[in-house]
Specification:
Helices cover 47% and strands 15% of the residues. By secondary structure, it is of the alpha/beta class. A five-stranded parallel β-sheet has the order 2-1-3-4-5, sandwiched between helices.
């Protein structure tokens, strides 16, 4: 499963981009998502690779992004900042082993929707993705309604 060959499980399944510099971690996260019926996964090896995939139209637009915090070339913090700078409001969940609350706060300030800590169960990850999708749908509808009213 790489960025050029997304794993399409079902037409109604949300598309999840997983960004992590460790192939084994991408595979584990992909399996956890698949266990929760969220197996439509696009993989990227770092933030720069993800930006190129998203900007190049090589992949379907993901419904949610799960991103590691520490990676070479472009880390999770810089990825989120660039994504938001380009007005992309796709929900981003940072999944990290980092326990430092100050780093979590910085990731949230950069534009991440939530910071999750490793290890995480399939059920917890699936729940967090579902919540992020629901919150994004509500925010999108509110923005659309405000735009129509104004």
């Amino acid at each position: 499963m790489d960025g050029n060959a997304p794993n399409h499980v079902g037409h109604d399944a949300p598309c999840v981009m997983v960004i992590d510099d460790q192939p084994a971690m991408r595979a584990i996260i992909g399996r956890l998502l698949h266990q929760q019926g969220l197996g439509n996964v696009i993989e990227a090896e770092n933030g720069l690779h993800a930006i190129r995939l998203l900007g190049g139209g090589k992949v379907a637009k993901p419904d949610v992004i799960i991103c590691d915090l520490y990676m070479d070339e472009m880390d999770g913090m810089e990825f989120v900042e660039q994504l938001r700078r380009h007005r992309n409001q796709t929900p981003v969940l940072i999944l990290t082993a980092e326990k430092n609350a100050a780093m979590h706060d910085l990731a949230l300030q950069a534009g991440a929707n939530k910071v999750l800590t490793k290890p995480i169960s399939a059920a917890s990850l699936g729940n967090e993705v579902t919540v992020a999708l629901a919150e994004h749908a509500v925010a999108t509808e509110v923005a659309r309604s405000a735009g129509a009213a104004g």
